[in-house]
Amino acid sequence: MIIMTVENVGKPYEILGLVRGSMIQSKHIGKDMMAGFKTIVGGELKGYTEMMEESREIALKRMTDQAELLGADAVIAMRFTSSSVMQGAAEVTAYGTAIKFK
Fold first, then answer.
1. Tens of pLDDT along 24-67?
2. What percent of the residues of the chain are helix, what percent strand, and what percent coil, each to the nearest 5?
3. What gap in Å lies between CA 85 and CA 70, rounded to an integer?
4. Most CB atoms within 10 A, among 9, 59, 83, 89?
């Protein structure tokens, strides 16, 4: 499956529709407390970086699975969004347009 952030792919295609995948994930309370302490001294919150990376990968996989069900060759105009659902939990969504090359 080809995943692109652009719309112009250089050859004709048929639009199959919007595809998306999402993931809501939270961190272990112990790691959440450690992140709170880290905000006092500054620096990267590695636990949250890892959580968001894992969430993006899962959301991307779910989006790709949905595109494959439609018979897509690629997903164009792909984007990620994220939002806080509650303290220590975030939603990541991957979305784009599924296409089939002519």
1. 987 655 555 555 555 666 677 777 788 889 999 999 999 999 99
2. 35, 40, 25
3. 30
4. 59
Q: Give domain 2-101's CATH architecture.
A: 2-Layer Sandwich (3.30)
Rounded CA-CA distance 56/62 in Å is 10
For residues 93 and 59, give the distance between their C-alpha atoms in angstroms, rounded to a whole number. 6
CA distances from 8 to 36, 64, 95, 100 (A): 44, 19, 17, 13
Strand partners, 87: none
pLDDT of residue 20: 98
Structure token digits, residue 100 = 């089939």
Q: What is the pTM of this model?
A: 0.82
